[in-house]
Amino acid sequence: MPIPVESLTHSSDEYIHIPLSSLKKATIRSSSDFRSDVVTVPTPEVLEAMVNATFHDEIYEGDATIAALESKMAKMAGKEAAMWVVSGTQANQISLRTHLHQPPHSILCDHRAHIYCWESGAISVLSQAQCTPVIPRNRRHLTVHDIAHSMIPDGNIHFAPTKVISLENTLSGTILPLAEAQRIRQYALNHPNKPKMHLDGARLFDAVVAEGVSLTDYCDNFDSVSLCIQKGTGAPVGSMIVGDKPFIDRAKWYRKMFGGGARQPGMLAAAGIAALDQALPLIALTQHKAKLVSEYLTMELGLKLSVPTETNMIVLDLEEAGIPPRVFRHRLFQFGVRVFDQGRLVFHNQISDQGVSALCQGVKSLVIDARIPNKLDQLDQEIEYTESLSQN
Ligand SMILES: *Cc1c(COP(=O)(O)O)cnc(C)c1O
């Protein structure tokens, strides 16, 4: 018999139907938070799923809710097996470590790849691997030509042969098309190194919805895929690795070794299942909103983008617009909107219409002020000064 969440709380608010006051605050905050899609918070449905989860020790005996999530994800991705882990970083690093055996070896990836730039240098520590970071010639995504040009063959003692090709989709919100992934896969299968293929698919759901291709067709081209079940979903924690059964069985050793064995993760798996069920059908709508705002910012306000808006991200070229990054963040905060300095705006399904409208008004005010000589630079200095005072 499921326990209703309301019975666990002291008061219930009829208006927003979120009974916990700190969660209510977090929900309101996320409705105008464009920093990332990691800011989504649990909905009442997600909370209810959590309290009705199973509470077995996953290491001693396995947990039924974890097993349910793993089989759901394996099925969705068209793979034999899946494994739950805490984070996307853990999913990527366990996958890469599982593919690699004895150094010297190297991993080929985009020069902006999360595995290379944003994971604490883990590849060199955990896998003793060298990276070959590649700048895509089309400035958007790696192609089979980029890969072929940068592969390090086996057999020459000066070089660490490429043993893994690691791709990322989406990357800064842009898509690596299915047809390109298939060409790279064909190339890899015919290469004498027999490189494994890993996909950092933290936002793969976004990519396949936007491209209109199937998740299983996409995952078909990879030996392992990491998928985030937290970003944009409202689950508090979690990523999945999918692959064949021997790979996942081996990966379990590394999960334990890297401190990722969890005692009672059933609640987290329950949150993941409920959050995915709620969030996946909303992806197309969220992307549509991002597209509309992107059109407003470019066509109406005349701003330029650093990369095209293909999924849930708008990346503004602030430098071209003469908007100092600090002023961007500061001004939008005055409009009640949270952003990071760099001009990246990430949409998720918990953004409200008021949040979108405040964002548009805030950016418009910046575009108007940027026409007044020195105004924003002066403001930038003032903010730098005030912020340096509050730091001391
Ligand atoms: C968010 C993200 C990850 C993993 O992030 P964690 O914070 O470790 O969960 C990995 N790759 C990409 C492309 C990401 O966007």
TrEMBL record:
A GO CC term assigned to this protein in UniProt: cytosol
Name of the protein: Aromatic amino acid beta-eliminating lyase/threonine aldolase domain-containing protein
GO terms, molecular function: L-allo-threonine aldolase activity
SUPFAM superfamilies listed in its UniProt record: PLP-dependent transferases
PANTHER family the record matches: L-THREONINE ALDOLASE, L-THREONINE ALDOLASE-RELATED
Cofactor: pyridoxal 5'-phosphate
GO biological process, one term: L-threonine catabolic process
Alphabetically ordered keywords of this record: Lyase, Pyridoxal phosphate
Assigned protein family: Belongs to the threonine aldolase family.
NCBIfam families linked to this entry: GntG_guanitoxin
UniProt cross-references to Pfam families, sorted A to Z: Beta_elim_lyase
Domain Aromatic amino acid beta-eliminating lyase/threonine aldolase: 33-318
Residues carrying N6-(pyridoxal phosphate)lysine: 231
Keyword Lyase: yes
